[in-house]
Design goal:
single chain, Beta-Lactamase, five-stranded antiparallel β-sheet, 5 strands, about 40% helix, binds flavin mononucleotide
């Protein structure tokens, strides 16, 4: 969803002290969005609740990042990920998202929760944006979407092997070095 919607190239910003929050059901449909979410994305609550989270997907996001996200949370793990989202008017905003499963008393996963903060500019510009551009180019280079995802996932795994660490450590290392 939202893959072919137009973008303006204009970046929007939110406050260092603000948190963009959303909660979803097991399928990633929005159940709750806080005011900061609605303000920066430019939607009303009624436009968001019940919609797939991909309604704010930006076409410059590599698909493999979302594959990693879902692999982690469906396995019951948390994940930190840098994400660029699309506003309703086509502008965009960068976040560092912390996505976690929400559990019932019996431990069963009943939905997911994302808290997003302002990302470090240096990490974005020096590491994340160049990495995502390479991953996206790889996905777009392949004729077939499935093959594109396979190849970009392989790129991520090669990069992590070079760094000698799993994805969560890699993201933590970036944060600690900032
Ligand atoms: C709690 C939670 C938060 C998410 N946050 C975002 C987000 O901020 N932006 C986004 O594009 N996708 C987010 N996703 C992932 C979407 O569900 C979806 O996988 C992604 O937009 C790719 O959609 P597509 O497969 O239709 O291209 C989130 C998923 C969950 C469960």
């Amino acid at each position: 969803m939202a893959r072919d919607l137009p973008v303006t190239g204009v970046e929007q910003f939110f406050g260092e002290d603000e948190i963009i929050v959303s909660k979803t059901d097991l399928k990633g449909r929005l159940m709750y969005c806080n005011d900061v979410f609605l303000r920066i994305a430019g939607y009303t609550e009624a436009e968001c609740v019940g919609q797939p989270h991909s309604m704010i997907r930006h076409p410059h996001m590599p698909r493999c990042v979302f594959k990693l996200l879902w692999e982690h949370i469906e396995a019951g793990d948390e994940i930190f990920a840098y994400v660029v989202n699309r506003c309703k008017n086509g502008d965009h905003y960068w976040v560092l998202a912390h996505v976690t499963p929400s559990r019932a008393r019996n431990g069963q996963i009943v939905g997911y929760h994302s808290n997003r903060r302002v990302p470090d500019r240096g990490i974005l510009e020096n590491t994340i944006q160049p990495l995502y551009q390479k991953l996206l180019a790889e996905e777009q280079r392949q004729s077939d979407r499935k093959l594109g995802l396979q190849e970009s996932m392989a790129m991520v795994h090669r990069m992590l092997e070079e760094h000698g660490m799993p994805y969560d450590k890699f993201v933590a290392t970036l944060k600690n070095a900032a």
